[in-house]
Fold:
Amino acid sequence: MIRPIVAYGDPVLKRAGDPIDLEGDTSWLQELIDDMYETLYNAHGVGLAAPQVGESLRLFITDASAYADQEEEMEPLRDFKEAFINPEIVEEDGEDWSFEEGCLSIPGIREEVDRSPLVRIRYYDRDLQLQDKRYQGLAARIVQHEYDHIEGTLFTEHLGPLKKRLIKRKLKDISEGKVDVDYRMRFPSTKKVKR
Ligand code: NI
Structure:
């Protein structure tokens, strides 16, 4: 089931997600992950965190294979389809690099964000197996962006004061639903689902 994506301004995006209880029946979790993938593909994104569909949980998913189809240098992203359950970033390394990011909860805004090029993350995968993996470059960036979501942080919070001031109006418009998007969104001020 495609779920509406929560727009900027909703308090769920500012809240740190709760850890997921992996004891007992987790069929609801498999369903949620299925819903999140449907929602991600429908919106043509590369990553989606549970708070973005209104669930305040430590969970995010990625799939950047569409990127890999577009450009040759994105080929390493081909197999970057993963569900990250109860993840913990245990290490970040390397000299910060800048790259333009966007977010499905903040349509129409793209800005350069500085992040470490290397990340090591421990998490449970979809089969509830404990993983400890290193990612680099764009994959690391996607992990960091989505991980931020489950900590209640949006990429716009990494911007400098000038940039923040420049996008303030646009952010307000998004929170009020004054934005064109081609996927379903839920806006905080109106509680209205568009499309
Ligand atoms: Ni995002």
About this structure: The helical segments are 27-42, 65-70, 137-150, 161-175. Residues 103-105, 145, 149 surround nickel (II) ion (CB under 6 Å).
